Amino acid sequence: MRLGLTLAALLPAPILAQDARAYVSDELAVTLRAAKGTDATVLGLVHSGEAVTVLAQDTDSGYARVSTADGRRGWLLSRYLSEQPSARQQMESVLADLETARARILELEALSGVDVEALLEDNERLRRELEKSAADEQLRQRKSELARAQRDALVAGALVFVVGLALGAWATRRLAKPPAGWREL
């Protein structure tokens, strides 16, 4: 194992031209150790994006005991653990979703064959018609309420008239006969 790590260290690093723009890689390899601490035996490397199962946490030392997908168990620094997949994995997923969405948009545009501007104009026209229809309905309701109020006023007036007529007739009959004991002139 140490021979492999030594050979990897001896491989030449990529040579970059002076003043060339370069980026720090997001590829990370964390050492998996047999015990907590930097002096413990290295069991191997766990690369960024690899899923591990946390078996125990030691907050005092900052190490977590983990189990890798291939069955290795050991300790690594818990500051390198995250509950979310790596940014690279998330980006790959987002890019795949974006490509799927773009393909679907193209497919729908081809199937629809509809002029979007015409749809927007129709939408605006229909919205105006709906507003006018709602205003017309309010006007009809107000007219109906007014007609009902006028009808109620007419009924009340007619009732007053009939009662007045009845009272007038009664009073006339009552006053037409002289009370008993009055003489007629």
Automatic annotation (TrEMBL):
Q: Where does it primarily localize? A: membrane
The SH3b domain extends over 19-85
How does this protein sit in the membrane? Single-pass membrane protein
UniProt signal peptide: 1-17
Coiled coil (UniProt feature)? 91-152
Has keyword Transmembrane helix? yes
Sorted keywords for this record are:
Coiled coil, Membrane, Signal, Transmembrane, Transmembrane helix
Residue ranges of the TM segments = 153-172
> Cross-referenced PROSITE patterns, in alphabetical order?
SH3B
This protein's source sits in the domain of life called Bacteria
Record Pfam families: SH3_3
Report the InterPro entries cross-referenced here. SH3-like_bac-type, SH3_dom_pro
Q: From the Swiss-Prot or TrEMBL record, state where the protein is found.
A: Membrane
The protein in question is named TIGR04211 family SH3 domain-containing protein
This chain's source organism reads Banduia mediterranea
